[in-house]
């Protein structure tokens, strides 16, 4: 009887230890650590991003990921196009904010290809300004 209880306690401890903590505003994170709804300011130049509260003006909001199909490096322009086409249908906007934002992507670098093929899908304002509040469900 003790072994099943011990095994259950170990399983619960392992599962609780694996849960990710919420992002801390003002901290820099790698894009792999983002959760849907994390807001980013400024717009990242690479996979390192700064998370900010969504209540303040911000450049983008993380929505989801898309894995670019395997194959030879498609080129910088093509990888962005593939990622954008994959991200677009996966974006889930707040109904009242659909007309305000579109998708942009953080893509893997050629040096990381094909080991890393994940694109990070971001909602950005159409007008090039800043978002305030959540635009992703």
Description of the structure:
The structure is a single chain. The protein is of the alpha+beta class and 137 residues long. 20% of the residues lie in helices and 23% in strands. It contains 2 helices and 6 strands. It has a 6-stranded antiparallel sheet, covered by helices on one side. Mean pLDDT is 87; it is low at 1-19.
Q: What assembly state would you assign to the polypeptide chains in this entry? A: single chain
Q: What can be said about the biggest beta sheet?
A: 6 strands, antiparallel
Count of runs of 4 or more consecutive helical residues: 2
Low-confidence stretches: 1-19
Estimated structural class: alpha+beta
Mean pLDDT metric:
87
**Beta-strand content:** 15-25%
Task: Give the ordered list of helices and strands.
Answer: HEEEEHEE
Question: N-to-C terminal Cα separation, in Å?
Answer: 45 Å
SSE topology sketch:
Elements: H1 2-17, E1 28-30, E2 39-40, E3 48-52, E4 60-67, H2 76-87, E5 101-106, E6 118-125
Quick take:
By secondary structure, the protein is an alpha+beta fold.
Label this structure with key terms.
137 residues, 2 helices, globular
